[in-house]
Amino acid sequence: MRGAVKAMTALLVLSGTLVAGVGTASADTCLTGAVDARYAQLGGTFGRLGAVTGCEQPTADGRFATFQRGAVYWSPASGAWDVSGSFRDLWAATGWENGFLHYPVSGEVGTRAGGVFQNYQGGTLYWSPASAAHSVSGEFLRLYGSLGHENGFLGYPTSQEVPIRDGGVFQLFQGGVAYWSPASGAHTVSGSFRDLYARLGHENGCLRYPTSQELPARDGGVYQRFQGGVAYWSPITGAHALCGAILDAYASTGYENGSLGYPVTDEHDVPGGRRVDFQRGYVEWSAATGARVNQPVAAVVPVPAPPTTTPPPPPPPAPSGVYYRNCDEARAAGAAPIRAGQPGYRPALDRDGDGIACE
Question: Biased composition, Basic and acidic residues: where in the chain (predicted)?
Fold first, then answer.
């Protein structure tokens, strides 16, 4: 009887028709080797892929077969793996195995926030309920991995790569933007720096492309280098950028460690030139004089006086693995305020030492 069913299925397959009622027999007739083994591993006709809809056939360097809810692809270098749902749609849009992703090298793997990922020879596909399906590849994938993949501050990708000026590309993520150009490499811009960068025209503004990640500076601040300048942030002054001759003058004073402190404004017009104000002075530029440092007796933005009483030391941060670089990020994630012992709490965010950060 089994031989008769297989013979009937073979005739139906040759005629281009697959009958749902004989799905298993069709698989026996249509599938071979690793493709058949993967299909069986997933439950065959009654598994996640459903019945066969297209017999196994060759690609340029492998084989594949299609099913009601997906496909199985095999190549000597990748093995046999299934592709389905949003990942199959995205893979198709990139050119299937002939695109930059090439063949899958894993099945779907569950990860945080109800998401999944799947590895390919040329990159990784990510999906979450909040972000849909997107790929990360090349330099962005290496950078993303160094920052913790979807578990890092970037979260899930929310776009594909987008081409921009000078042969560069950018890609959006839940927690920031990744930029790459041949001259600058791959770096992210996030948080307050992302807002500042947008305000100044992204890569088309005076900063151009980022050339570093954020780096720690004095008094709980951070800075980030760009091709055309430097962005600074501190809890007291917020985020501001310096470019050109004004940046050179600032450098001559010792940057944020020097007499001027942190910038408190962006570069702005004044009669006859441009100016940036700092905590303890300003730098003004004109075509006639160039950039000149001015330090009035009164600080532009006085540094707050220390508290009259010494607060008790804050408790150590909870070993949660959750990390917010600043309170802007904590608020954007809906985590603020953060009490001592809660995920993401650390003393640097608790400015008044009362055990509650980002109030």
Answer: 348-359
| Strands, sheet with 52-58, edge to edge from the N-terminal-most edge strand | 52-58, 63-67, 70-75, 79-83
CB count in 10 Å sphere of residue 73: 26
Helix/strand/coil for 30: helix
Sign of CA dihedral 221, 225, 226, 229: positive
Q: Could you tell me the two tokens for 226?
A: 């760009």
Q: How far is CA 227 from CA 17, 180, 211, 246, in A?
A: 61, 12, 6, 15
Among 204, 207, 225, 210, residue whose Cα is nearest residue 179: 210
Enter the tokens of residue 270: 């004044």
Altogether, the residues listed in the chain come to a count of 359
How does 90-121 read in b/e, with b if 16+ C-beta sit within 10 Å? bbeebebbeeebbbbbebbeebeeebbbbbbe
CB contact set of 165 (below 8 Å; sequence gap of 6+): 203, 204
Q: SS3 sequence, 49-97? A: CCCEEEEEEECCCCEEEEECCEEEEEECCCEEEEECHHHHHHHHHCCHH
* 245-302 residue pLDDT tens: 999 999 999 999 999 999 999 999 999 999 999 999 999 999 999 999 998 645 555 5
Residue 268 pairs in a beta bridge with 275
Q: The tokens of 274 are what?
A: 């441009």
Q: Using CA atoms, how far apart are residues 237 and 233, in angstroms rounded to an integer? A: 7
E strand or H helix that includes residue 256: none
The conformation of residue 337, written as its DSSP 8-state character, comes to S
Over its C-alpha atoms, the chain yields an Rg (Å, rounded) of 28
DSSP 8-state code for residue 170:
E
Q: How far from the centroid of its chain's Cα atoms is residue 123's Cα?
A: 14
Task: Give the helix/strand (H/E) hosting 29.
Answer: helix 23-30
The packing angle between helices 23-30 and 33-41, to 10°, is 150
Kindly report, residue by residue over 140-165, the tens digit of the pLDDT. 999 999 999 999 999 999 999 999 99
